[in-house]
Input
Amino acid sequence: MTKYNTLLKAKLQELLEARGLPIEGTKEVLIERLEESDKVAAELDEDDDVKEDVSEAVTTEPTELTEPTETKEEPKEEPTEATLETRVLELLNTKLKRAIKFNEEELIKRLNSEILRINKFGVSAESAIVHELNGTKPKYTNKVVKRRTPKGFRGRNSKKGHNKRRY
Output
């Protein structure tokens, strides 16, 4: 086939790799492999066509259209405090093992104190560690929001005369 002769060797190798054939050899060898693969694929397609023709001839009864069944998604159950606590402790223990592995002493101290606090007081559903575990964001943040005043941003023109042009 001449369509393979116009392609570069790299493109031929990609085609061979996609078909699961070896990619070593010269360009001519690669073209031969692709042509053989095409012949085999054509023979398989002919066999499939014959089988499909036979199966179509056998089924002459009209088929009824079936409506897709609706799958009801089960609502996720709210995790109880006990399950939340065990999941959070598992997460903290895995973090602690990693910190020990990489010898991060400050992180080890912080994680140990968090584990002790959770063992003593439990865990809240709105705590940051639960949001980290669930992959959600907390509802409220302490982020400072810059607000515009009629004269511009606050504090921009606090120094008198600093933005005047001087000639």
Notes: The chain has a mean pLDDT of 77. The first strand starts at residue 148 and ends at 149.
